[in-house]
Amino acid sequence: MPRPLTAALDPYRRLFAVPGARAFTAGNLVARLPMGMFSVSAVIMIAERYGSYALAGAVPAAGLAATAVVGPLTARLVDRRGQARIAVPAAAIAALGSLTLALCVHVRAPAWTLFTAYVLTATTPNTGGMSRARWAYAFRGPGADNAAALHTANSFEQAADELCFMTGPVLAALLCTGAFPEAGTVTGAVLLTGGILLFAAQRATEPPPRPPAPGERTRSPLRHRGFPSLLAAFCCAGAVFGSMEVVTIAYADRLGRPGAAGGILALLAAGSCLAGLAYGTRRPADAAGPGEPGEPGEPGEPAGPGETREPAETAQAARFLRCVAAMAALMLLPLLAAATGRLTLLAPALLLAGMATAPTMITGMSLVQAHTPAGRLNEGMTLAVTALLAGIAAGSATGGWTAENWTANTPATAYTVPLAAAAAAALAATAQRRAA
């Protein structure tokens, strides 16, 4: 193996030298794969059975909106009572919701039953957040080495997210079109349950629960300056992903190539995955570890009014803005490619557009950790993921409505939705940079 490549892989070797890291990562990847399957599976099977992209976009949107409410509550329980104790029953309820949805779609039940079933999936545990919390526990403590290792871990986790969103849609599309429309949802429910059981069994790497001590009061991450605008940026980024998914499925269908949608969307995730892995080999001087409770101004406890912000956090906010701006600029490519009416041009455009996604999410998650005390780390990361999911819900609904109502003669018009969402994310990142 060439020495430059060997050196680039060294940070990742350190990660998996941690005892138990490979086992919990394997379980987490299995549990996380359905996250890239559920939405695409729902869109395909509902559109197939009911003949409406508006309904197909609205049902996942309702479930993701419910997750915006239930997700942070589940994460708080995870922080206080432990990952294994909470994640297993939460995943079981979510799997039951997915199976109920598949059954309702199969028998063509009234539309309201689809919304009711999908809402049950709101209890799906934040597997990525729990995995990041395990890395934060493994590399806890001050020091540049731990901070650099945590940056690599965050990069790996983002690449894992993208890997799941790269393979998940392809697997979902193959199952739904090659077997039967509900096959993707049923398979996803089985993988989620099995993966969570495997992940939860790895108790040695699980962070200890942090129940609040009598009289202890920890500020909610939402009360930290800059955190609301950071969540707004995550929400807008989610709208990019949600709308891009539905718009691309509808666009391929309009061109008579519905089966190609999963593969094309996989290229978007592939670009992000490659960029994330490359980004993880860097060692930013301002890499920050997870928050620790302490006085304002210490790492992880953002400064209050009139107090001095950590230079590392300010640098992270500036880097986050640059990443979001790059993502917004690259979202022009799918719109221009779609205007040609050729999937062969849209595919590489999505690959390139995805390359700003992982660095944006990695830097954003680093900011979330800097804003969040250690005792509420999973809650803080889940709030970010919840904002992302809320954005995906809004983007999915908006993209579905636009694809059905505005694109009869010009299918490419729907690609203005992810472009507008990316521009809004850049505005929110600007506000966050000023708050930092």
From TrEMBL:
It comes from the Bacteria. Gene3D superfamilies: MFS general substrate transporter like domains. The chain crosses the membrane at residues 29-47, 53-74, 86-109, 227-252, 258-279, 320-339, 345-368, 380-401, 413-431. Keywords: Membrane, Transmembrane, Transmembrane helix. InterPro entries: MFS (IPR011701), MFS_trans_sf (IPR036259). It comes from Streptomyces synnematoformans. Residues 203-222, 284-312 are annotated as: Disordered. This is MFS transporter. Pfam families: MFS_1 (PF07690).
